[in-house]
Structures are given as structure tokens and as C-alpha cells.
Amino acid sequence: MKTGLPSRFYPVVDSAVWVRRLVDAGARLIQLRIKQPDGPFVRGELRIAREACAAQGACLVLNDHWQAAIEEQVDFIHLGQEDLDEADLGAIARAGIRLGVSTHSDEELDRALSVDPDYVALGPVWPTTLKKMPWAPQGLERIAGWKRRLGDTPLVAIGGITLERAPSCIEAGADAVAVVSDVLANADPEGRARDWIVATDKAVAQAVL
Ligand SMILES: Cc1ncc(COP(=O)(O)OP(=O)(O)O)c(N)n1
Ligand SMILES: Cc1nc(C(=O)O)sc1CCOP(=O)(O)O
Ligand SMILES: [Mg+2]
């Protein structure tokens, strides 16, 4: 049976130091995204991140490196569409690792649904400066349309999301909101993370009233 996500706030970071800082600040779902080939550096960071998450009862998502996720028993693997071409989804499922899949178009959503993911990410909701992408910003209406197609499968919104914008993503139907720059580039990342947790939880409470 599929379960939901443990948090509405979903930071994406590039080091174990950031994982520790943000789970100590209250994050309960966090992604380690290291854009380097799998190897001793990635494994070392992954083990430290896993321990930091275990100490706080947080869920760790590893980006891209599905073999490492299996061998190091991570909670979730996040795969993009190109990553899906390479990954052994059967091995991931047999290892009990939950799967998140990126989508940016209807065709990508069709493919994501065909692999029965534990969550689907839609992006970029607004323009992002973090990486170059060929897709125009999706906007909030697309969040609502994706959620209608997903039903009970959790939806993660990502791309250009700020503290001020995050509640509108939840109101539009996102189950969690992923973020890099708005938290990591803030002068007080831990304080910003705490503000995100309050704002996203409040948006959920208001959405069900
Ligand atoms: C939550 C979340 N959503 C989307 C992505 C992007 O994944 P992908 O398209 O595979 O690109 P890279 O992050 O690997 O460059 C993500 N990592 N997390
Ligand atoms: C890693 C990533 N994937 C995206 C997608 O749309 O698939 S957007 C994104 C970067 C998100 O960073 P920020 O919060 O700084 O905009
Ligand atoms: Mg990827």
C-alpha cells in the first residue's frame, strides 16, 4: 500500500551538512541532490545524511543514484525521465525504496503514472534560476490539473517557489512543496525553514476548513 509524504515542506540540498542543518531545524522530508557520478564522495555524503535523518526521524530522498539508494537503504529515490531510462525499477521496488518521479508535460505524467510512483513532482511552477530547463513555467492551474489525474498519489510542486508562494501551491492541490534557493540562499536558512514549515502546515489547515 502507498503511504503519503511525511511533510509538506521538502527542501532539496547538495550536501550532508545541509541535510543535518535542515533536519535539525525541523525538516522531515529532504532530498540529497549531488550532481556528481556515484562514488566514494557520494556514498560518504549519503551515509552522513542518512544518519542525520535517522537521528531526527526524517525521511531521506536521494536524487538520481538509484544503485546507491538500494545499497545504502535510503527511504526514497527521486528520478527524472532520463533517469527512468537507466534505472532498474524492479530492483528499487524489491529493496522497498519508494519512488518519486519528475514531470514537466502531459507525456511525462503519462510515463510517470505507468511506473506507479509514490509521488510525482511537477515543475517548474515558476521560473527557476537553479538550472536551465526547456519548459515554460507551469503555473498554479497545472498543479490543480495534475492533482486531478493523480488522485491519491502525492503531488510535489517545485521550481521558483518562495515562502510567500508556497501556500498557493498547497491551495492548488500540491501535497508538498520542494525548494532550494528560497531556503538555502536566505541569511538565516534554519529560520526560513521553520517559517516554511509553519506556512505550509497553516495552508493545509486552511484548505480543509
Ligand atoms: C522534488 C524534485 N522534483 C524534480 C526534480 C528534478 O529531477 P530531474 O528532472 O531528474 O533533474 P535533476 O534534479 O536530477 O537535475 C528533483 N530533483 N526533485
Ligand atoms: C531541481 C529542480 N527540478 C525542477 C523541475 O522542474 O524539475 S526545478 C528545480 C530547481 C528548484 O530550485 P529553486 O527552488 O531554487 O527554484
Ligand atoms: Mg535526475
From TrEMBL:
Keywords on record: Magnesium, Metal-binding, Thiamine biosynthesis, Transferase
GO cellular component: cytoplasm
Pathway involvement of the protein, from the record: Cofactor biosynthesis; thiamine diphosphate biosynthesis; thiamine phosphate from 4-amino-2-methyl-5-diphosphomethylpyrimidine and 4-methyl-5-(2-phosphoethyl)-thiazole: step 1/1
Pfam short name (any one): TMP-TENI
Listed GO MF terms: metal ion binding; thiamine-phosphate diphosphorylase activity
EC code: 2.5.1.3
Cofactor(s) the protein needs: Mg(2+)
GO biological process, one term: thiamine diphosphate biosynthetic process
SUPFAM superfamilies found in the cross-reference section: Thiamin phosphate synthase
All residue ranges annotated as the Thiamine phosphate synthase/TenI domain in the record: 16-183
CDD domains: TMP_TenI
Catalytic activity: 2-[(2R,5Z)-2-carboxy-4-methylthiazol-5(2H)-ylidene]ethyl phosphate + 4-amino-2-methyl-5-(diphosphooxymethyl)pyrimidine + 2 H(+) = thiamine phosphate + CO2 + diphosphate; 2-(2-carboxy-4-methylthiazol-5-yl)ethyl phosphate + 4-amino-2-methyl-5-(diphosphooxymethyl)pyrimidine + 2 H(+) = thiamine phosphate + CO2 + diphosphate; 4-methyl-5-(2-phosphooxyethyl)-thiazole + 4-amino-2-methyl-5-(diphosphooxymethyl)pyrimidine + H(+) = thiamine phosphate + diphosphate
Xref: PANTHER family: THIAMINE-PHOSPHATE PYROPHOSPHORYLASE, THIAMINE-PHOSPHATE SYNTHASE
UniProt similarity note: Belongs to the thiamine-phosphate synthase family.
Protein name: Thiamine-phosphate synthase
Organism in which the protein naturally occurs: Lichenicola cladoniae
